[in-house]
Structures are given as structure tokens and as C-alpha cells.
Design brief:
It is built from 10 helices and 4 strands. α1 runs parallel beside α4. α1 links the parallel β1 and β2. It is globular, with a radius of gyration of 18 Å. By secondary structure, it is α+β, with helices and mostly antiparallel strands. It has a 4-stranded mixed β-sheet, covered by helices on one side.
Length: 215
């Protein structure tokens, strides 16, 4: 058995972690958790009490939340070169943009998708992201520093926050700005991203076939 066990569903944020695992190049076992009773059941809730995927078990460590998983794996496997060295300016940027994705980007895109946006300066001041436009402006400005979010070097930030940008373009929760489109094309074309997408798409097809067979 591999040292890493990956709990996921191909129709979830687990696709982010799949890409991260493929970038690592380390062996891992996949456990597909179906929505409904299995994900809500006691066995999986012992892994993640939130009854959500993804989750990763690495030895005795269990990590949930896609951003935390990407950050953890980048540290656990430093030879992959997916995180700058601790205590450096590059590491400061790594943490800043990882948490920017988990906070302002996630919240702004989700709220917008559900039809709610802050109304006026007072509400913008109370939410952590200000406004969706401010989030998009900030992301666009950061992408001017290089082909990747941290500049010249690809990192786990590109996996996590990059996935959010690509999904935002696909599901129209982020503006289709030229910088976002160009960046998404570069990230989506990476070998590991292609492999991850193919694996999860095949799992989705398998699930659909099983559902049809049991209907």
C-alpha cells in the first residue's frame, strides 16, 4: 500500500488534490466516497466529521480542506519543489496567496454564484473580500508578475488557487479576463493536470455507468 490515501469524489474539490498528487509524482491509493449515506456515514466521518471530500491520510496524519492538503503535501514532499523554503520572502508570498484563495476568492465566488453580493461600502467593509471586482483586480495584478502566481516558479499555489481560477472561468463565477484565460490555458495544459483530469473523468464515467446499471 502507498503511504498516501486519498479520499475523494470525482465531482468535488477533490479534483484539486488529485492534480496536486499527480504533480508530486508519489504513489497514492484512491478511495472514492459516494455522496449520500456513505459520505455521511460513521466510517467516513471518522476521517472528516464534516462529511465532505477531499481528505488525505499520510501515515498517522489526516488532512482535510483542499488548501491545507496542498500546503501539507508540498511540505511533506519537499523534493517536488512545490513550496518555497520556510522563512523566505517567497514562502511569505506562498502563504499569502494560498490563504487568499481559501478566503477571499472562495467566499466571493461562492456568494456571487448564490446571488448575493455586498451592497455598498459598509457591507464591503464587513466581508473579508470586499467585493468580487476587488478580488478579480487583485488576482489579475498578481498574474502580471510571471507565468505563475508566485512569478517564475510553479508551486502548490498554482494548483489550489489556479484550480479556483479555472473553475471560475468554467462556471462563470469569475470574470473572463484575458489574464485569467491565458493563465488557465497554461495551467490546464500541464502534464499532471491532464493526467488528473483524465483519471477523474474516467471515474465519473464509471459512476454514471454504475448508476444506469442499478436504475
Amino acid at each position: 500500500m502507498a503511504d498516501i490515501t486519498f479520499y475523494t469524489n470525482p465531482m468535488s474539490r477533490g479534483r484539486i488534490v488529485r492534480w496536486m498528487l499527480e504533480e508530486l509524482g508519489q504513489p497514492y491509493d484512491t478511495v472514492v466516497v459516494t455522496y449520500g449515506p456513505e459520505m455521511q456515514g460513521p466510517d467516513y466521518r471518522s476521517i472528516n466529521p464534516m462529511a465532505k471530500v477531499p481528505a488525505v491520510r499520510h501515515g498517522d496524519a489526516v488532512v482535510t480542506e483542499a488548501a491545507a492538503i496542498c500546503a501539507y503535501l508540498s511540505e511533506a514532499f519537499p523534493d517536488a519543489g512545490l513550496a518555497p523554503a520556510p522563512g523566505t520572502p517567497a514562502r511569505a508570498a506562498f502563504l499569502r496567496w494560498m490563504f487568499f484563495g481559501a478566503g477571499p476568492v472562495e467566499a466571493a465566488a461562492t456568494n456571487s454564484a448564490f446571488g448575493w453580493t455586498p451592497s455598498g461600502p459598509q457591507e464591503e467593509g464587513r466581508v473579508g473580500y470586499g467585493s468580487l471586482k476587488r478580488v478579480c483586480d487583485t488576482l489579475e495584478a498578481q498574474l502580471q508578475h510571471g507565468p505563475f502566481l508566485l512569478g517564475a516558479e510553479f508551486s502548490a499555489v498554482d494548483v489550489y488557487l489556479g484550480s479556483q481560477i479555472m473553475w471560475g472561468i468554467q462556471f462563470e463565477t469569475l470574470e473572463k479576463r484575458p489574464a485569467f484565460l491565458e493563465y488557465s490555458k497554461r495551467m490546464g495544459g500541464r502534464d499532471a493536470a491532464v493526467r488528473a483530469r483524465e483519471i477523474d473523468d474516467a471515474l465519473m464515467a464509471e459512476q454514471a455507468a454504475q448508476e444506469q446499471g442499478s436504475a
